[in-house]
């Protein structure tokens, strides 16, 4: 249920009403990051320096990069609260080790770029190579790809997020229902031709400096 | 719902009917990999050289090996479509980093053996040691174990797959209901005796060359 | 359903009744580890030497440490049964690589401290530094934090476990409903003040020797 | 996922893009009825005469009334499509007999007031008694109650909808987390006093003429 | 998981192996009724006289009719077993009262046509009117409709079954993804025209004699 | 998660801590009714006169009876709170019409025996016939059956409750795994023989006076 848009709320100011209002506000903040998942273009985020209070944001993105001097901290416990706008929900689904997730969230330990890369939170711990492809430097690219079919890229994002929250069987069923129409795009033919014609794909390659 | 075996489909050739048929065909292809999960013997897959279009297949297997020259690519976006026969559904549940999954699926980047091993996609990046145990070289072993109790091995596989798609509480409930009869096998006594008698277990050890 | 506390069971001794009783006993054993998740204090476990038959226990804990000589083994298949008190359910949600999980459970291979650390099962492969903070050496600390707000720490644990078993949307909804009252604690103010006053947080730092 | 608010969509006009746009439009229409569930006040709907194309709307409401001459029809199959803005999703959860739901949706049969009442779709098949309570005639009452605690009424609605879509155990867990703060309202004391003082509750009584 | 088609099973004849084989056989029997749900044409079933052991079958159908002398019984408990090929799973989702479902399954009480109709198990307790429409008497009609669009009828069935097993939000999401292509059928135009031209729809009307 | 048995709770008395304690207490009350579902014997409940505050209790039972003078009321809204120990979670799964459930919970309307019977809440609106079978009058019978196989009756109850909270496919899978051992009971043979030998089954027949 989309709590952020609940139409009414009880008037008054006792503790229950304060809680009610609090819940609505939390939901609104949560929504500010969830829209990133709803954006059909893949979203690449790059972290420079400290990322404190930003883990909510970056875990809602699709691909995470960082500079060598980046570090990450889930600091909410230190200020007396449980993180409530996405970190506890998304971080365990982004990185592999739940032991690490628990430690970060419970002990407020800082994690630096190297460990962040090893843990799978970010894929390349450093600044991406400035590629000459299309005058694009990789950081500003919205979809991670210069010239891919939007039908393919966006369908991939929608189904990756769907799979995250469902069983494999459910994900396969949804995928088949999705592609039954999406395969009927002229992009398939165009992409196939383009794929044959050019030797190297125009993939943005996030490599180390 | 097992779409592949839907009994009827609407005749005709407008776009809706084409979609309907497309969905049935996708489901049939999906099923060709899902049967690997249904095979009660653990399935070990080994990759040599390129694995393009094969990620669907290998993620449906139980254990993945590869040679040093192996590389992996999820190429569907490049030909204008979202991967629909298992990669987007199973890959995120096989490897730990969703950042990496997203990058592979959205940017068509190649991943080589070393990174594949680090990411957890394959467990040993190289050719397994040819073991002398039982004249078996590890590659051809269907269940990953020479002489284990099939009741134990197969029950383990069934419940590992069940756990993947359910909460911990659900998984525990199912496990208890499974083992309430499966523990009543004479294999437990036989295995216990064998376990005591032999010094080293006949486990296939997938080690580096 | 809490099988361990099923009120009655059918009398008699045929195979069905034996199964029934077996299921009740398995559920009781499962519960002995599940209570660790119900403990609102974070639970840190440290492994020294072999951890055979203990993977059920440690995967129910929040943070796992080990000494350099530790090794881990899921040995159930070797004695003719599928592990039924938590390993098959929790291990795949603790470490990132399902390939590794499958291999450990199906081939009974030993995993040593270094690989355990790389896999994400334990976070620091070695003995933690004896910190001078509060005369506490890190091993005995129940909540991983010296002086954090219990409202914050415990709420974090409850929601991390809830997220593990639900979709992101479900987790966010539950989190907002949780925090609508939990934010109304005086700990937030106290923690904020404390956070400003002291230079270095009293976080237990699990570092290598 | 809130499809109605997907931020972008692929440009162009082939079949896949038409489908994409179609999906967004369907989701927008669906949302126009889902907001009724998000309205924290209970919504009472009253049907007079034919309700064709309106079953989507009324099944999203909390309480359904109708006049003696009302009739209901799910007519989508007759115009070549499957109902896609709520009827197939909500009707089976509103009335008890799935046999009836299937028949209505598949055969386009009309259902008149008497059968609608028997089936549980509407609770009172006739015009409600014009009550003298507060000059309110029952039809216009937004929350079905004259002077109930909004904390109680709205919490009841939120949890009834939550229960519809979850298991009993899940619903109980959510309810406890909800009420842990909502019970701390002064409405409980006020309501208790009012409940003792007045002989007959001011409940709107929907009775037959 | 499609247990009926599990590829292998352990050889031998102890109790665990007997259980394993038993499970496979039960799954095969279950599948014989589940195919009815997979049949894209709506399936109408009519019961004459006793329906003992047939409740599994009829609850897998879409619409249930019966003659005046029909009666229904869930007799498994009387022969020492829990019904395992569909009754306990589908009956509670077909009729409204769980109290009745429990009583039928636990006490083996017979239910006659009148109560079956009231309970919602069958929609018309009697023989349907022999309609003159197309020389069809209603009993033999496979899809309950003479000339409806198959795209509409079959899409309706698929989504009704999907909704049964999912939350409303999940059902709406799937429906939108389904119809994004299915609305692009020429049947919509044809049906609309036909709907305007003919005065009375050719709906099969199941009325009492 | 079994909140009632959470091992620790934060000390102190601010609003957050009061909420925390409140949640634990609610969960304990919820558990007092949930144990009825865990009791493997079917539980029959009979209501005489008013059932106010007892709807939580009776909806956790398996079969509900009542005398002619019984009436039911969900009165929580009238005292300023949302019902939190089972009514909002179980009532919608017991009776067919969600319109009625909503009305009862939101308007505090009384429901009398006749309507309760029609709605499916109770199966027989009146006092059950005092049967001469075994000197048992039907009210005191714990399992609703004089001499049924406990393996059959209890397995039926466990699976009926499982089905309530799962999809049909999930329910079928669990059922097959349950019965793979439970069919191996000597009760099947005994019951079959008994079933043939006696003319009329010893079923308790709840009939009207």
From TrEMBL, chains A, B, C, D, E, F:
Pathway as given in its UniProt record: Lipid metabolism; fatty acid beta-oxidation
Any GO MF annotation of the entry: delta(3,5)-delta(2,4)-dienoyl-CoA isomerase activity
Keyword Lipid metabolism carried by entry: yes
Keyword check for Disulfide bond: no
Coiled-coil region(s): none
GO biological process assignments: fatty acid beta-oxidation
Family, as annotated: Belongs to the enoyl-CoA hydratase/isomerase family.
Record's protein name: Enoyl CoA hydratase 1, peroxisomal
This protein's encoding gene: ECH1
